[in-house]
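User: Structure with adenosine-5'-diphosphate, tokens only please.
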Amino acid sequence: MRPRGALARAALALAAGLALAGGMRALRPVPDVSESLYLFGTMVEIEIHGAEAAKARAAIAAVDAHLEKLHHDWHAWRPGELESLNAAIAAGESFTVDAPMAAVLAQGKALSCASDGLFDPAIGALVEAWGFHADTLPEGDPPSGGEIARLVAAHPRMTDLKIAGQEVRSTNPAVQLDLGAYAKGAALDLAEADLRAAGITDAVLNAGGGVQVMGSHGARPWRVAIRDPFAWGVVAALELRPGEALHTSGNYERYLDAGGVRFSHILDPRTGRPVTDIVSVSVLAQNGALADAAATALSVAGLADWPRIAAGMGVENVLMITGEGKMVATPAMRARLTPVGDDFPAPIRLVDLPAVSAPRCD
Ligand code: ADP
Ligand code: MG
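Assistant:
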């Protein structure tokens, strides 16, 4: 597989969500109900199988309202609960958040610790400095070396957060929270819970790079595909088991083009600079927040270090595609993948995960 240039990538960006959630269709007593919602800066597609239309639509309406609220509360740069919390942290004050916010922050802190800090939602100031606090692709120059060095030297870390019930404070005023790297996964986990509470058993939720399933599509599992980061199309397909989440982080949808260089929106908290050699990481896990956070962390870890981080985070199913189009995967993930067409776009090199114990943080 070879990189095929900016045009193909730009075209691909338009195809967000394409072919990611195509359930096989068979004769059935109740037609599937599907709806697309525009939330979290992306299309969220929900397809429900085996439920009466009115019940399915009511369930989707509940999800819509919930995700709308989360989008507002978790927004990294618009007025809302997270922005208020960030202002309090910058001022050295503690802040009382609502229960769902406390839960998602605690989850983010645990995931950040498990990733050895490579996934770190406290680096919002760096994300902002690189221009990614905008709905459109950033333009202009990258931040200066001096600015990056200053932001990195302040060492904002998720583990600086102290969460006591719903009261949150930070021991470091440089912490600026940006939940972008796991918000989609965490939100889809909550959406799944909403659907379950509404009596839905079989559904697929698909939000720009993240797809999660409940139950099955009748007699068949839900079948999904992983996008090709270089060309219009997919690199592999797989069947998701009930409750599984597949998240892909890539630098093909959000990036900064400056001086002939494409900078990824995934930053290495250790250097303050964008990830360079990895274009796509897919993680299959039992919940969306973990899969989403791990996909980001493994992008940062890169080709040499990702097995250690995957083991620390407890994820076993990983597919990584490098800037040169090389594909590497864990044996467990490889066993789940099937080619779409004759073969995979490149040979898949298998990498075993080391036996490491998860890092401990308080
Ligand atoms: P995508 O949105 O393509 O699924 P990610 O899940 O990797 O990609 O999220 C990337 C977003 O997460 C960035 O836009 C930024 O807001 C934030 N971010 C970037 N680097 C990191 C990091 N190392 N740890 C945590 N969040 C990050
Ligand atoms: Mg992510």
